[in-house]
Amino acid sequence: MFRHIKEDISSVFHRDPAARNFVEVLTCYPGLHALLFHRVSNWFWQRRLKWLARFLSTVARWLTGIEIHPGAQIGNRFFIDHGMGVVIGETAIIADDVTLYHGVTLGGTSWSKGKRHPTLNDGVVVGAGAKILGPFEVGKNAKVGSNAVVTKEVPAGATVVGIPGRIITQQDKADTAQVQKDMAEKFDAYGMSPDMPDPVAKSMGVMLDHMHAVDRKLECMAQKMREMDASYEDEALPELKDEDFSAAIECANEQTEADVKSV
Q: Bridge partners of 79?
């Protein structure tokens, strides 16, 4: 347990540029305090001293604003930044090098016993206010954007945003090593970055390309019909210009940038 605690303290320096020295981290980081309480309460929980374990977790909630059930399984180098309002359920499983921001909930969707909370694999980042609900897995190195609500499995390397959560980027499995390197060199706060593709603008662009292709096919068909029958007269279609859609696409991009900056 003491080895875990040493790694927990060291991980703060890797993921928070505001951390200055050991004493400051040990005395001024509520996320670390809640985790240290959990290490102890989980030790009691595993030895069937469940009331004592629950009491310690309740004390930790009073002191830090972070609620971690003593039955939750937490791996190495776990980091909670800011921390207020974080809730982690009894059957949640958190692997190594996971980062949570304030207001995150790892909750269940039923009252049945058994596995009912999510599993976060290595390197997962969960943005502020996000809710991950249900007994499914969030894949290795995945990111969950701020205020997202996720209720189904997330593939490794994916980025999920929105309500309900939707995948907007997904890293190829072959690039897992590169993902880990990028995470070490440039940490994307709150699980989001300004260069994320906007799904609305992308969808509109795909629809516009499709409509242009349909227009070309219709023109070709009309030309063949004119060649076959000189009396054929087709009605001219209104011209479809990309400029007509540019304002909507630009508005969607501006909204995405504003959402990213707001976090």
A: 99
- Taking alpha carbons only, the member of 120, 159, 114 closest to residue 136 is 120
Q: Are residues 63 and 172 in the same domain?
A: yes
Q: Are 76 and 96 in contact (CB under 8 A)?
A: yes
pLDDT for 246 beyond 80: no
Q: Of the residues 191, 209, 225, which one is the last residue of a structural domain?
A: 191
- Long-range (24+ apart) CB contacts under 8 A made by 82-85 are 82/30, 82/31, 82/128, 83/30, 83/31, 83/34, 84/30
Tell me the per-residue pLDDT of 47-97, one tens digit each, with 9 for 90 and over.
999 999 999 999 999 999 999 999 999 988 888 888 888 999 989 999 988
State which residues form the domain around 244.
199-262
Opening angle at CA 85, ends 84 and 88, nearest 5: 115
**Residue 89 DSSP code:** -
∠ at Cα 178 (176, 184), nearest 5°?
Answer: 110
pLDDT digits (tens, 9 = 90+) for 160-178: 888 888 887 666 554 545 5
